[in-house]
Amino acid sequence: MIKIFKHLQGKDWLLIMCSLVFIIAQVWLDLKLPDYMYEITMLVQTEESKMSEVLVQGGYMLLCAVGSMIAAMITGFFAAKVAAGFSVRLRGMVFEKTMSFSMEEINGFSTSSLITRSTNDITQIQLLIATGLQVLVKAPILAVWAVFKIMGKSWEWTAATGFAVLFLIVMLSIIIIVALPKFKVIQTLTDNLNRVTREHLTGIRVVHAYNAGAYQEEKFEQANNDLTNTNLFTSRVMAILMPTMGLIMSGLGLVIYWIGAFLINQAAIPDRLSLFSEMVVFSSYAVQVIMAFMMLSFVFIMLPRASVSAKRINEVLNTKAKIIDGNLTDGKEGLSGEIEFRNVSFKYPDAKDYILRNISFSAHKGETVAIIGSTGSGKTSLVNLIPRFYDAMEGEIFINGVNVKNYSQEALHDKLGYVSQKAVLFRGTVSSNVAYGHNIDIVSEETSIKKAIEIAQATEFVEKMENQYEGEIAQGGTNISGGQKQRLSIARAIFKQPEIYLFDDSFSALDYKTDRILRSLLKKEIKDATTIIVAQRIGTIKDADRIVVLDDGEVVGMGTHQELMINCEVYQEIAYSQLSKEELEIG
């Protein structure tokens, strides 16, 4: 828990120190009230005292109460400012850290867990700071100061107060021991509920198509009930706290007056007035001691859950990214769009078998290199190694004569135009999605956006949209079709004008006519760029300069379409399963 606070800045500590000053002032004012109460009690029972003297003491009490309130308000303001500022900074740090994660780290935490850690967990820390700064600091000061105030009074009253405090501490300890393990479970169950909800919402079309609503509801109910039952258990345990606190406070007051009655009865008549006043004052101080522990109990309610949240946040912040940034921004002089795989092997984390083995091939400036193979042959895995979504376990990958591991990730990604297998669009407009990652200058960029959309064969449907190029795109592109999403994803890569294009099965949602026209325009418009195409359809890749055939993670053929139709059995099987001999132009 303490480790999380190392991220507090100097200004935060300054505000905390200012809060400490006002907390001490507040405690001093609170503990002055019984002193004036003692004077009023004495004055009221003394015959020659004047009303004005009572009013003066009452005025002092009022000033102390108002001063304490003002000090509490200032402390609350500082605490809220520290908590809000810290949570904003912490949330930014977690987000920035997750941005540096490779797919390995993302999958290790899971997306739903990272969302919970960035929101719910940080909220728990914020609540602890906002409340704890006022209570956790004030309570010990109040308790110790009040104890010093009552020292030297009747040992019977002191013993009664000590017994009440001891009973309170034992009760708090038992509650924490019972509740703490459940708080750890609550955060995990929150992750699970987040995962089930997210899974349901993202897969809503499949859920409806298979009439699986009842099945999904059952999964949600199970996750929801698990979280609810655990929360109920901790709430019930904590519910014991407040009634017990009230019982202790009322019981202590009763015991003090009961003991006081005996002491006053046994005391000499001249001492009874003083003893009665001391009893009233002692009762007030004893209540302050119990109040201090009561305030601490509120922190103890939040502390276990916040402690778990802090641990989970630290896990994210302390995770070392597996993809280590290089420091180069450019390749060898004179080279552009050059890619080389040299004896590359790769397996996913914790997997037993390699999914790619000893892959070697090259692509030169202006060439189109296609990758084809059966499902599970490693095509997407191979392409994902180029932008370093994962790093190769063995071998090397070169771009422009430099190992990709030696580039800074920003410089490496600047050279690439990547279109993923599953089209990804963001909430915004058509233009903001096509120009994603760039600051759009309306005058200079509008033509480039339209040109990219035209090449990607998306002009027709874009100009039919309301507001056309400024037409709204929903989160995930749910308001347009799969083929339209894919074309806008392709337009995004074209707009970037990179040295190397990576198309990971990006034409699969297009009809054959659109596919053919798009590839023809691409060949014309980006002829100076290198293109890597992963595809399932022979028609998409048969005009490529070089085709790499994968089977079970190994290269089993490499060459042009005509060459592979002669000497590669795997390629022949794929080709004949899709097209006739006449279509393959070899009959």
Automatic annotation (TrEMBL):
GO molecular function: ATP binding
CDD domains named among the record's database cross-references: ABC_6TM_Tm287_like
Membrane topology: Multi-pass membrane protein
InterPro entries linked to this entry: AAA+_ATPase, ABC1_TM_dom, ABC1_TM_sf, ABC_transporter-like_ATP-bd, ABC_transporter-like_CS, P-loop_NTPase, Type_1_exporter
Annotated compartments: Cell membrane
Regions crossing the membrane: 12-29, 60-83, 127-148, 160-180, 237-259, 279-303
Residue stretches making up the ABC transporter domain: 339-577
ABC transmembrane type-1 domain span: 19-305
Keyword Plastid: no
Keywords tagged on the record: ATP-binding, Membrane, Nucleotide-binding, Transmembrane, Transmembrane helix
Protein name: ABC transporter ATP-binding protein
The species this protein was found in: Robertmurraya beringensis
